[in-house]
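Ticket #4471: structure export looks truncated?
Reporter: QA, pipeline team
Priority: medium

Steps to reproduce: submit the single chain below to the structure queue and open the exported record.
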Amino acid sequence: MLFSMSSLETAGPMPDALAVLPTRADAPIRLEKTPARADANIGARSQPRAAATEYLTVLLRDALDRVPTLRPLRLDNEGDDVRLSVPPALWSGAAPGLGDLAALLDRLDNRVMIIAPIVKGDSVAWSRGLTEAGRAADALRTAGFSRALETRVRPAGAGAPAGLLVLISGEREGS
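Actual output as written to the record:
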């Protein structure tokens, strides 16, 4: 099963703005890893995987639209993953919404990573990026995120957003 929409078929008003997302126990969003096919489509995204990524993107976009404190987050796809650009003020607690972000991410069945984009080959930036990503992970846990959380540093490509990113992996947690 790639995903279930059963929790979206609720009757009556939603109790909170995040109710649009399935709960992990009731209807987790599952983005299965698909082995490469041995034909002309090697390297191409599989249709089921692409559909699941699109579904996750739509759910997250709807949740961001419904929760006023999360509207400053920018959402886009990065291959089979979904990327959230988070304003620095949110990580520092200078803006409301960190608890809402923690609640949103906690409802997914996907691996969540905090990534610090850096300039390739800059060892000082590498160390600083790991420290910043670690602080953001601690802030997210303090705000209520209760699952495993990875932190990474990676070179930023041209046109990459500045600041820390949250990457919601196409892989499920624990896979």
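Status: closed, not a bug. The export was complete when the record was re-opened. Leaving a note from the reviewer for reference: The mean pLDDT is 74.
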